[in-house]
Amino acid sequence: MGSPRVSDIVSICDSLWPPAYAEPWDSVGLAVGDPSAEVSHIHLALDPMDAVIAEAKDLGADFLFTHHPLLLRGITSVAADTLKGGAITELIRSGIAQYNAHTNADSVIGGVSDVLAEAIELTGLTPLVQHSDAPAGVGLGRVGTLSARVSVRELAARLAKAAPVTATGIRIAGDPEVQVERVAVLGGAGDSLFDEVRATDAEVYITSDLRHHPATEARDTAHRCAAGTPHLIDISHWAAESMWMARAAEQLRERLSSGGMDVTVTVSEISTDPWTERIGQAGE
């Protein structure tokens, strides 16, 4: 077949990460680009930031696949001197299409939360929240079982070893010495799903972006039950989700190869975690 068109790549992506699996509030799919343009190089990254767009341009990519959307909330201008407008202008000038798979990639089997769960060796995975209009196994988050009980501290250390290094590292809320076996994970911001976690038998919940009030209220709620669960492990949003990018690239390469499409696929080497340094304090 040779070089496919943007529309062909969109069709492949939509089949791997069906837009129907996205949450109602989400924005997924092609945001920038001519569907009829040819594609020779797909570049994958978590975020469509300026540095990533420049990286894609330097590599000669003509299709930028990201997890997070470029356009999620409504904007009223795409002027080049605005944040979103500047990105769109640079993409168009550089001949780069931009597509994203967000919560649909979170929910699909083999997606973001599956990769996170596999990184800490969970088995017997089921969705934390089963998608109402999808086959069994599709949904947000995963709940699974460790091969043996370990302390929360040991589990956090296992996660730290598997995940990319970030300034904020891995944080624990709860008793680090408690032994756990059943674990819930959700790549990305997960403090909106505490009720769903409590409805499972998960003893610890691994997620990102845990804010002060939701985290303290979750632990206070845990203290009111005999088991004191779930304990919390917080991982950088970027670290939790960026591990999936290699899996997505592998899936794309396989689908392109089986279709006879000659396309280069690369994964960004740029960390888009916003935090660059952590200053230690006395007594640590």
Give a brief description.
The chain contains ten helices and eleven strands. The protein has helices spanning 6-16, 50-59, 83-94, 103-107, 112-119, 152-162, 194-198, 212-223, 237-242, 244-258, and strands at 29-32, 41-45, 63-66, 97-100, 123-130, 139-151, 170-173, 179-189, 204-208, 231-235, 264-267. The strands form two sheets. It has a six-stranded mixed beta sheet with strand order 5-6-8-9-10-7, with helices on both faces.
Task: State the share of residues found in helices, binned by percent.
Answer: 25-40%
Helix vs. strand class:
alpha/beta
CATH-defined topology of the largest domain: Udp-n-acetylmuramoylalanyl-d-glutamate--2,6- Diaminopimelate Ligase, Chain: A, domain 1
Q: What is the number of helices?
A: 10
Query: Overall pLDDT, averaged?
Result: 97
Globally, the shape reads: globular
The CATH architecture designation of the largest domain is 3-Layer(aba) Sandwich
**Elements, N to C (H/E):** HEEHEHEHHEEHEEHEHEHHE
Beta-strand fraction estimate: 15-25%
Largest sheet: 6 strands, mixed
Whole-number radius of gyration? 20 Å
